[in-house]
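Posting for a labmate who doesn't have an account.
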Amino acid sequence: MYCKNCGTYLPDETKFCTNCGCPVSPQQPAGAEPVQQVQSDRTLAKKPNTGVKVFLVLCVLAGIFAMVFREEIKQTIQYTTAEIKYNQGDYIKALSIAENLDSEKAKELVIKCRYNLAAEASMKDDLQKAVEYLEGLDYEDSRNYYNLYTYNLGVDAFNEKDYKTAASYFQKTDYEDSKEILVDCNFIIDLEKSVTERLDLEDRAKIDKRKLVTTELSILEKYENAAFSTSGIRSHAEEYLEALEWQLDSLSEDNPLQAQYDWQSGTLLRYQILDDFYETCGFMADNPKFVRDVINQLDYEEKWHDAFDEITDNGHVETKKGKFTNYIELYLKNNTEYTFSQMFEFKFYKDEDEKVYLDKATVLVEDIGPYQEYTVRLDVPAAAKNNYYVSWSYYLTDIEVD
């Protein structure tokens, strides 16, 4: 082999050139790959890659640190600006800055800004804005002011007959009699709901009287022993529930005239209460069906009830003794100014104590005029002929009133 540096011929086992002293690499067989050189190259190739990675990591860390440091500086500058604005009395600007900061100091500043803005709003009588700023605050006497302002807003809405808005305020406060006024509001709101549902039921072809009453009772019966604030609303609530119970009881009454009287009396009392709410509270004033079917009907109901009382007392004056054989005749006189029609019902018994029932029969007498004498005639049913005791009652089917 030869020295690669000076070209001197050297024996194969020589490690250093005898001429120039340079190291001599052993000669590889023909076709052999320079294994150690490749391995050395690979080893050398790995060292630069590791260094680059470390450098990149350090760069990223340095960037993150710089960003965090820059954000902290930015937050500090913004907080300082907000604090300056607060000390200058510019609470709105201070609040707009502090709300976007995350530090505890910034959160405290937000609370103080809202408290002072609420104070400014209250001095301008803008209680709505004051309540918005105080909402959820627990700072000094903020809760007391929140309760007071919310209560006053509720009272204003109540006096303006906006009961739903009033209720929304009274639900948020426990100031003084707010809970009692909330009962007043909720009763009027629920009364409107119950009346509306009843009017819808009355529109149906077949009216179920029991359902009319129970629908309203299911909504309003919770107010039976409720603590109201306003004595007028409390008394009306009690009377309205009484009217509904009156109507409900009438449906179980055996005497048809008494049943009719109780039902109509309940109707009249309901209408009178609703009319009073309409006049004093604007109750359902924007509902044309309510105005037409209730308010405009009140005058008729009152006249009808007066006529009913008068006819009951003086519409069946006996002019002479009746006949009770195989037929019955009653000789009566209408001693009133009203024209009416009525259904007579006769019940036949075998004994005077009315323990053994035989049969019953009805007869309709129509258009009985003012101060007119009239006869009620009925053939006795076959089951009762020749031996019977009879009782009779009636109910009015129509009364003509102006």
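Reply:
Got it, the structure tokens are right above this. DSSP finds twelve helices and six strands in the chain.
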